[in-house]
Amino acid sequence: MGVKFISGGALTTIQDMGRFGYQETGMPVSGVMDKRSAALANLLVGNRTEEAVLEITMLGPAIEFTEDNIVAVTGADLGAKLNGAEFPRYEAVLVRAGQTLSFSGIRSGSRAYVAFAGGLDVPQVMGSKSTNLKSVIGGLNGRKIGAGDAIGFAAPKTFLPNMKKRRLKPEDFSAKEHTLRVVMGPQDDCFTEQGIATFLGSAYTISNEYDRMGCRMQGPVIEHKNGGDIITDGISFGSVQIPSHGNPIVMMADHQTTGGYTKIATVVSVDLPVLAQSLPGQKIRFERIEIEEAQDLLCSWMEELGRLDREWNTVTEPASDVQAVALSAALCEQKTNFSSQGTYRIVVNGEEFLVELQKETEPFRE
């Protein structure tokens, strides 16, 4: 099977990288709030970065495993525990059937991500497994996860290559003030010079009106030239709307597809995870950069993901017939019981190999 939920937590949903290609019809992209943490969780357990994960907001669930699988928890430190003992963040861990993963409460950050090797057995809706609560689609019947729910694993694993390398230093989200880099526009010309200076020179406090759709902030009023309304146009993840009241609203993963408020700037992609992990009461400042720098930052981040993928998920293949014979001999000499099909780790002269055994449909005959 996979996992069943003893409790669902405050807001636990299934999310992947989003539902693309439908904004023109009014369907939001949705997907994870913190793409960095979700991507790392997936790579740690050998998945593609686009695979669906559990997104856990603030108060976590209690999850009982009904099948063995390799798991990683990234993002916020919500006090993850396995059978009551501390569960390491940012590390691939084999969890056995019958064990329970739970969360004791917020230590830093606001959203944790749980990835399962082989992914979750959840159907795609419009090309994505992501849950959209308002549209009631994706994930687990378009709703948040609750007590009694069960989700199957698509292709669980009990071993991955390079297991000892599959760990990172956990990220720290405890800072009370963050700076978000922004690219100005598309309606920055709707603000006075003083309004722009206020936006870039002030600290704004995250309000309690913060959900997967948007993050409202409070602080010094940002001055418009002629009010905050415009002819409705498109919105993206990270758009900074300034309505007539003069305070920022940053659009998040479940943002609507269009809006009629002026957008002074857009938060760069690599800084959106910082906001996704921030809490009400924390301070936010905005720093202007050019679009070329924003693109370079994103390219660097994608290159880093590629490096980690190669480091963790590259499996050595026999370089010659001689090495293949040595590998077969080592397999035969192992004391492990190979009666069942599955993936086994074999070491030949210090090199690690994965050997997958499958049952033949017909008995072998000489």
Automatic annotation (TrEMBL):
UniProt keyword Repeat present: no
Gene Ontology molecular function, alphabetical: ATP binding; hydrolase activity
Residues of the Carboxyltransferase domain: 24-301
Keyword vocabulary terms for this entry: ATP-binding, Hydrolase, Nucleotide-binding
InterPro entries listed in its UniProt record: CT_A_B (IPR003778), Cyclophilin-like_dom_sf (IPR029000), PxpC (IPR052708)
Any one Pfam family match given in the protein's UniProt record, by short name: CT_A_B
The name this protein goes by in its record: Biotin-dependent carboxyltransferase family protein
Organism per entry: Candidatus Copromonas faecavium (nom. illeg.)
Top-level taxonomy: Bacteria, Bacillati, Bacillota, Clostridia, Lachnospirales
